[in-house]
Amino acid sequence: MSMAAASSSASGMDMGGMGMGNTCKISMTWNWYTVGACFISDSWQITSGGMFAGSCIGVICLVISLEFLRRGQREYDGWLARKDKNMLAAYNARHDLDASSGSSVQNSNGKGPTGSALPAATPVSAPPRVDRMTLLQRQVLRSLLHAVQFGVAYFIMLLAMYYNGYIIICIIIGAFLGAFIFTWDQLLNEAK
User: Fold this and answer.
1) The pLDDT of residue 180 is above 80
2) What is the C-alpha separation between 69 and 97, in angstroms, rounded?
3) Which residue blocks in the chain are alpha helix, DSSP H?
4) How far apart are alpha carbons 30 and 111 in whole angstroms?
5) Biased composition, Polar residues: where in the chain (predicted)?
6) β-strand partners of 37
7) Is the dihedral of CA 61, 66, 67, 73 positive or negative?
8) Most buried of the four, 56, 75, 128, 188, by CB within 10 Å?
9) The whole model's pTM is what?
10) What is the pLDDT of residues 125-156, one digit of tens each?
11) CA 2/CA 9 separation, integer angstroms
């Protein structure tokens, strides 16, 4: 055996400074590795069946948390829309009340109490608008929620890239459970 082949085979077994007994089983093709498999880094090496079961449960919970974050984003956006709608409704109610009380000041000949034609119209103010600082705060919070969602989704994608059948099944189970738990709002909104 040549010296180059011997050094390459030795370095292939080392796998980043780990001894021969602690090598990670990593495959970029479909696999069913359990004990010995590594995910994300060599510190997440599965050393027992219990650790693998815990990892599977953790992956399911991670995907469920992604659906929770998506629901949180929808709830926050809906809360902002309701808040703005209520503010506009209060403005319109106040504006309608001012307009109706101003028109009742005239007497039977269409003249106001001073004999003038109609009372001077009160200036109409513009509908309320959300100030720029509030908009900025809202968008910062929305962007933060999006960034956390993006990070969790990217981490899930990295786990899927190990092509471990058990982990992919756990991702699918987590997606099912997360959608089942956190997407009732969409179903109930469609029924209304």
Assistant:
1) yes
2) 42
3) 3-14, 49-103, 132-160, 165-182, 184-191
4) 88
5) 100-111
6) 25
7) positive
8) 56
9) 0.70
10) 666 777 888 999 999 999 999 999 999 999 99
11) 11
Q: What was the pLDDT predicted at 53?
A: 97
- Counted residue by residue, the chain has a size of 192
CB 156 within 8 A of CB 63: yes
Dig out the tokens for 192 from the structure.
């209304």
First-to-final CA distance of the chain:
75
**CA atoms of 100 and 157, how far apart (whole Å):** 60
Helix (H, G, I), strand (E, B) or coil at 20: helix
36 and 21 Cβ atoms separated by less than 8 Å: no
Q: Give the C-alpha separation, 71 to 68, whole Å.
A: 5
Question: How many angstroms separate the CA atoms of 122 and 137, rounded?
Answer: 34
CA-closest candidate to residue 25, choices 16, 10, 17, 35:
35
Please name the amino acid found at residue 64.
I
* 19-24-28-32 Cα dihedral, nearest 10 degrees: 140
- CB-based contacts of 74: which residues, under 8 Å, 6+ apart? 185, 186
- Is residue 157 a contact partner of residue 171, using CB atoms and an 8 Å limit? no
For residue 31, the cross-strand partners are 164
Strand partners, 90: none
What is the chain's Cα-based Rg? Answer: 32
Which comes out higher in pLDDT, residue 113 or 80? 80
